[in-house]
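Hello,

I think I submitted the flavin-adenine dinucleotide job twice by accident. Can you confirm which output corresponds to this input? Input:
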Amino acid sequence: MGKLLIHQNLVNEEIAEKLINLCPFGSIEYKDGNLDINAGCKMCRLCVKKGPNGVIEYIEEEAPKVNKKAYKGIAVYVDHSEGKIHPVTYELIGKAKELAAKVCYPVYCIFLGYQILESAEKLLHYGVDKVFIYDYRELEHFRIEPYTAAFEDFINNIKPSIILVGATTIGRSLAPRVAARFRTGLTADCTRLDIKENSDLIQIRPAFGGNIMAQIITPNSRPQIATVRYKIMSATTPTKDPEGEIIVCSMDTSKFESDVNVIKVTKKEPEENISESEIIVVAGRGIKTKKDMSLAYELAEVLGGNFAGTRPMVEAGWIDAKKQIGLSGRTVKPKLIITLGISGAVQFTAGMQSADYIFAINKDPKAAIFTVAHYGIIGDIYEIVPKLIKNIKNAKGLIGEIPKYMAPASMN
Ligand SMILES: Cc1cc2nc3c(=O)[nH]c(=O)nc-3n(C[C@H](O)[C@H](O)[C@H](O)COP(=O)(O)OP(=O)(O)OC[C@H]3O[C@@H](n4cnc5c(N)ncnc54)[C@H](O)[C@@H]3O)c2cc1C
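Support: Only one job matched these inputs. Its output is below.
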């Protein structure tokens, strides 16, 4: 951390011009008659290294020290719609319990909404120590200002060391706002989480287009905030008897002021979500024509599963974008996933490697997909898949001529 200081006494017209032209972000400019660095500065420090000697100086600033001992516990944000809890919450509770056990921390939930007591009680079956609820009419619908205000109140009073938020539409909106309010770090879309003895959360996620797995820590501020996509972590199993307690929090409701007024809520038609499928057949570039996609559709159908694709298949317009698996698509965790002609690029496997069983078919024995697959067949999908379909049909007693499964109407 640091800042750039311009020694104005060394600046003349020629030097100013050089510096203005040197900055790749156009961040050096004249302001009120002085040379200035604007908010577009990316701290690349090219002006210090390549600019006229000594005119711009980089001053290192010591990071403020945080009293880590003042923060304790791992809090999970309860993602919900009208009190119906999103299953990512149970996955995050599972992870929170695992991390908390390593540093002897309690596990909390923070639940914001209206008339949510009954839903909150369900959480006590998942082994959390305390569920903090903010039950206010102003929190009935997700609105960013009141939700942030309640979250802020919770952090100020409870001081959790770590906050885990589901990377849902609401979570992706709320977590950065809360992080900014506390000037703390937020790591989005973590794929793995661990904890150091000193309570620093190790947040692991793909970076630089998925080519490296970055380990990110937030050593100088608290709380530490991470978002995790649905189906990345394993959900904890509920117990019969509830444990822990519900704490109903109260706060100054004037803080719920919002510029957003919810006039009407229109429910979206429920749509198919591949993340919920237990069996998925995924088509990759090994499939040569759009017509041949029937291989994937038919295999999915005989298995009673769903079908999906890699990004190139979506880009080719052969499959709907909602069915793309991977870093820039959906994350899935089915019982069985079968990949057809897929190389196994990290950007793809990042979205499916937690599946219970991965079964890959690829003609290249060196294909990376075989490093994550539990079972594999080296061979041509055009020979193997029809046989597979036939055998499954035989086993299921569906013997006879193999009817060609038609592509869904939307894909024709
Ligand atoms: C920032 C970023 C994000 C990305 N996000 C995603 C993402 O979310 N999802 C995603 O999928 N990709 C993503 N990608 C693209 C990714 O890097 C790969 O390019 C892509 O996954 C490759 O798809 P594929 O395996 O279908 O094709 P290919 O890599 O071309 O592999 C085709 C495979 O088919 C095999 N094959 C060919 N013919 C046959 C046959 N007849 N029988 C059997 N095997 C055969 C080949 O041996 C080969 O291994 C992303 C890339 C970037 C840079």
